Structure formats: structure tokens, C-alpha cells
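Entry for the shared binder. Reason: the reviewer on the internal report wants the predicted structure included alongside the sequence.
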Amino acid sequence: MSESLIDRLAAVVGTGQVSIDPDVLDGRCVDYTGRYRGSATALVRPGSADEVAAVLLACREAGACVTVQGGRTSLVAGTVPEHDDVLLSTERLNHIGPVDVTERRVRVGAGATAAAVQRAAADAGLVFGVDLASRDSATVGGMAATNAGGLRTVRYGNMGEQILGLDVALPDGTVVSRHSEVRRDNTGYDLAALFVGAEGTLGVVTELELRLHPAPAHRVTAVAGFAELTPLLVLGREFRDADGIAALELMDARATALTAEHLGVSSPVAGEWLLLVELAGDTDHTERLAEALESADLAGEPAVGLDPSTQRRLWAVRESIGEVLGIHGPPLKFDVSLPLSEIEGFATAARALVAEHAPDAIPVLFGHVGEGNLHLNLVRCVLDGAAERALYAAMMALIAKHRGNVSSEHGVGSRKRDYLSMSRTDADIAAMRAVKAAFDPDGYLNPAVLFT
């Protein structure tokens, strides 16, 4: 890293917004899970889209690689630098504009957290459609980059479905602003969609215009326990396309045992498998929920929440899982997407695979069953580098065998780039590489992400 580049970056963003302190950089070079570490030579915190663009241009002309960082909640090492990179943080791009209640939209900076956007929407009597366990740190720019899903995807869709417009700083130092005041705009390429899910490889999202939704007047929540996975999936299939579905979450007994033991948050019902169902809308769905649960093959009586306080208690186990997973050190995480018909077979085979490779590990399975988006976490998984890579590769192969995708809501990052061909054809990958080359011919922007 040349002094001239540092001076140029400081001239763009201010001396106080550039750091080469080894301790600062060290804390920024480890991923959210604590398992993966990289190296960087500088941290820069631009405060506007123009500053982001100027930083990108300076780094490109100096031949320095850039890794973009938002809330750094990636579970696939998507923000871990590998080339002594310049770290470009969006943390100062955290503004939230006034909510347009009539059109139900709001403009926000890429560094605004999901929780901050949720609060702004709620204050206006509206709802932001994406909710994550990491809501207090995950930024909307990063969520757009990975096309994040989460707890409400079954109702509102992924992050891409909430985006009405984007401002993006491109690798050549220009800024594209794609917004429209009309609800239907079919003019030319859908450039905004191109950057959603691109994981920062094509440009840096600096501002987003987000769709908001009416807040439902009625909400009912239930947690049901099952002795076997099959009846849970049958009920989940029934609910996933139901009118009013707001959440559909699967948890296994190992997850609830951990929350009970270490956080004092016990499951409200018994069962090897739990299904959290929430229905919401302008009408009360309580009777409909009760009828569906009555006909299901449950392990016991379900727990039902009609008021906000009880509903929060029912959500407590699901919300606590993320916190408890690191109790025995960094877990090994797998974020996958499977057809519902394959989930039971995968769950059985995955446990056997873990027992073979890491017999001391505790496999914990939970996730958004409405989309078949599951999170398999291996708690107490201590393996050396070669053994961990062998387990990871075997798990990726198992996912492909069960007709799943190697990535769902967290993206590919650098952790899964070697397995991209399990979910995409050679022609598909070649087309993506061509798009990358068109926007970033020097390959300096997020170079560790997506492609080998």
C-alpha cells in the first residue's frame, strides 16, 4: 500500500476516516463466525456516493483490491479480504429519509441497519418486509448485495422484492442512480436487479429506495411440536401458500435444548421437531390456524399466542438460536436451499455425515421451511483445516445430491465459491463472468467473492 494512495484516500474522505492501524484492521479481517481470517492494509469510510466512487477510482488506478464491508454479518466469509485489500466500509452511509406513507416507500443509505429501517417504518404505521436475526447489525446494502431472505420471506419475498431503486458506485468511479416515481417502469435493462445478489462484485450500493407494506391489523402465532419430521413438512406445505402466512420456521430439539440450557429459554411445547407458524392480515386467522393444527399429527398440544406479549414469548426460542450457537466456539455453518420433499432425507443423511467426520459435533437444524431454506450449524465442531475442508466438500455434495442449492439467503462469498458449479452450469458461470468483466475488467472489486 503506497503512501500516495493513502494520501489520496484521505483527501477524498478526510484523514480521520482512513486507518492503517494494525489493531483496527485485524478486527475487520475476521468474519462473523470467527472461523475465517484475511488481511488488509487500510480501512476507508466514505460518507457519500461520490466519495465511494472516488475511493474506487483511486484504488483502481493504484492497482489495489477493494473489499466492501457493511455490517460484516456474512456467514460465508463474504467480507474477508484475501489480497491485502483496502476495506471500504459503508457504515457512514446510514441516513434514513422521510417515509412516504402515501406511496409506502423510503430512501435509506446502504449502511443503515435493518432494525433502523424497521423502526422508521413502524413509526409511520408500516412494515419493512425483511427481518433477520442479525437485524441490529446487518445493513440494507449488504442485504441487497446477497438478496437476503429471513423470517418474513414467505410473506413478503426476498430483499430484491423490496427494492424500488438503487444508487450504485461502479468500479470505474461513476455513479448510477436508478429510480422511478411510477410503479411500473419497463424502460430498458433492469439495472437495479443486476446488482441485487451480485455480492458487491459489480459495484457498491450506496443508497436504496425501499418498498414498505401495510401493517396487518391481526396476528396469531403458534408453536407446534412433532415426533417426526414428515408431519411437520406436510403442515408446512399446507401453510406456505396460505393466505395470510407471515412466518413459517422449523427448529429441531437440539436447538431448543441449547437455548434452554444456556439462555434459560425453553421450548413452549415438546417434540423432536418444532414448527412456528404465524398468520397475519386484515382479518383474524385464529380459527383457521386452529383447524389446521387440529388435523395435524402433533406430539402434544400446540402453544398459541393471540396477544403481542405471548407472541414474543413464542418467538423467543427461534430468536435465541443464533445467540446460543457460538457457546462452544465458532460453529461451522451451512446455509442451503432444498425442495421440501428432500428435507427429511437430507436431515437424516446430514446427521450421519457429521457423525462420520466430526463425531463430537452437535448438528443443529433450523430455518425458513416455507422456502426450504435451512441453516445447518455444527456446534462444538473442532477440526483442522484439511478435515474441515473434507467435511465441507462432502456436505456440499450431499446438498447437490438432494437437488438443493449450495447457497440460499447468505450468498456464495468466498467460502462457497469452489462449489458454485454444483448449482450453476458452466454456461451460466461463463455468462456471470462476462458481466463481471464488463463492469470490473481489472477484477479489483471484491475479488475473493463468488468466483475462484
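Summary line for the report: The radius of gyration is 22 Å.
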